Every structure is written in C-alpha cells, then in structure tokens.
Amino acid sequence: MKDIIKVCNMNSIDDVNNIRRAISGNEGVVACEINREKGEVSVVYDGYFIGIEKIIESIEDLGYTVL
C-alpha cells in the first residue's frame, strides 16, 4: 500500500531524519520518501503488518502535526 501523509511543522533536515527513523522503525514499512518543501511523507507499507494509523501515530509521537 502507498499513502501520502501531510506533516505541517517539518522545517529542517533534522526533522526529516527524525521522521524517517520513526517510520522506518515500524515493521511492515517498505520505503518512505520525504519532501520537506511540500511537507509530504510518501510511505509504502505492507498492510498485513501495519496500518496507516500506526504510521501517523509514530510521527505524532515525535511532536509533529499530521493533517
């Protein structure tokens, strides 16, 4: 499955790296691509292991706002 998540307070390269680590740490995530300028996180994952809700939760747990 592939989804695009909007993250509004992602400003620096550190933010990008923090989000990438949080997403990649979840079992079932195949790939993620982060566009800081657009504030978008494109994530490819196996729906058998993880749902989009859990991925969003892992981003929000870091203090970022998901739209």
Describe this structure in words.
With 67 residues, the protein is α+β, with helices and mostly antiparallel strands. It has one domain: 2-Layer Sandwich (Alpha-Beta Plaits). 31% of the residues lie in helices and 27% in strands. The protein has 2 helices and 3 strands, in the order E-H-E-E-H. It has helices at 13-24, 52-60; strands at residues 2-6, 29-35, 40-45. The protein has a 3-stranded antiparallel β-sheet with strand order 1-3-2, covered by helices on one side. A hairpin with a 4-residue loop joins strand 2 (29-35) and strand 3. The two termini are 19 Å apart. The model has no long low-confidence stretch (mean pLDDT 96).
Layout of helices and strands:
Layout: E1 2-6, H1 13-24, E2 29-35, E3 40-45, H2 52-60
Task: Name a few traits of the molecule.
alpha+beta, Alpha-Beta Plaits, globular, 67 residues, 3 strands, 3-stranded antiparallel sheet, single chain
In short:
By secondary structure, this protein is of the alpha+beta class.
Give the strand content. Answer: 25-35%
Query: Span between N and C termini?
Result: 19 Å
Biggest sheet features: 3 strands, antiparallel
* Relative helix content: 25-40%
Q: What number is the mean pLDDT?
A: 96
